[in-house]
Write a structure and sequence with these properties.
The chain contains twelve helices and seven strands. The strands form two sheets. The chain has a five-stranded mixed sheet with strand order 3-4-5-6-7, with helices on both faces.
């Protein structure tokens, strides 16, 4: 829909769910095709935007039906999968691409709102890069190129920042809950810290955005944290210790502690992990 608003001609759409196809047609004003083969034969650039696990099967069925053609560009937008899963299209002279926006889309309306201006990874046939760059620039976005072999590691990085950030925030909320603070209040209380940290990362970057006892070299405060975790929330001490272990080198990069103090922090966290393993 966003590309349609930017003067790309959408020749047609198809979804296995007829209601979804109807909604797309109503939004875009294009043709509703009765099969993916018809869509493919009508398009110079074909987007396969199914679930990640279905992309290769769709590409395979289109190849079996000889629905690809010379010079066509086949695109999927999965972060986890490389363009390799589209390779059967190459048998027909088509070019393949993975064009992935580094964004989190909670629903279609939100996606339409935040997709423009996103940063995209581009991977696939270099001969088709110009098509990918044109799409991204039409959306007002930025881009970088990656090798298909690196795609899983790239996606792991995106998962850490998006998915595991949720887990870390939930972890912090659980620590506050263990002191008797209601979950709703704990969440509300932590939001300024969360948004402030994100703004600091955006404005001054990592490692400068790192604050707190490790960045200050305050080993005594960390020791108190670990003692209290042992007493009140032992099941959470492993995650706290591993996060602390990997935070110490960031403090060294910031220049607020030296390598010797980093090792002291890491020894404290390893001792905690050893105790937790013995008690589990």
């Amino acid at each position: 829909m966003v590309l349609n608003q930017k003067d790309y001609e959408i020749t047609g759409v198809y979804d296995v769910k007829s209601e979804s196809t109807k909604q797309l047609v109503e939004r875009i004003g294009c043709t509703a095709y009765s099969s993916p083969q018809e869509v493919s034969r009508s398009a110079d650039i074909l987007f396969i935007t199914t679930s990640d696990t279905a992309i290769q099967d769709v590409a395979g069925s289109l190849a079996e039906a000889k629905a690809f053609h010379e010079g066509q560009v086949i695109v999927h937008m999965s972060g986890a999968q490389s363009s390799e899963i589209l390779d059967r299209a190459r048998e027909f002279g088509a070019l393949v691409l993975s064009v992935h926006p580094l964004q989190s889309f909670a629903n279609p309306e939100r996606a339409i709102e935040i997709l423009p201006g996103s940063i995209f990874s581009i991977e696939g046939d270099k001969e088709a890069y110009e098509f990918a760059v044109c799409i991204v620039e039409t959306l007002g976005g930025e881009y970088f190129f990656i090798d298909r072999k690196a795609k899983p590691l790239y996606h792991a990085g995106a998962c850490v920042v998006s998915n595991y950030l949720v887990t870390i925030i939930d972890f912090g909320i659980k620590l506050l809950e263990s002191t008797g603070i209601p979950r709703q209040m704990a969440t509300k209380a932590l939001m300024p810290l969360i948004s402030g940290t994100i703004k600091n990362i955006e404005n001054i970057g990592i490692p400068k955005a790192l604050t707190g006892p490790i960045a200050r070299g305050d080993l005594g405060t960390i020791a108190k944290h670990l003692d209290c975790l042992d007493e009140m929330a032992p099941e959470l001490s492993k995650l706290y210790s591993w996060l602390g272990f990997f935070t110490a080198p960031v403090a060294v990069e910031k220049g607020t502690i030296d390598s010797q103090l980093m090792k002291e922090f890491q020894k404290a966290f390893i001792r905690q992990l050893s105790r937790a393993n013995v008690n589990s």
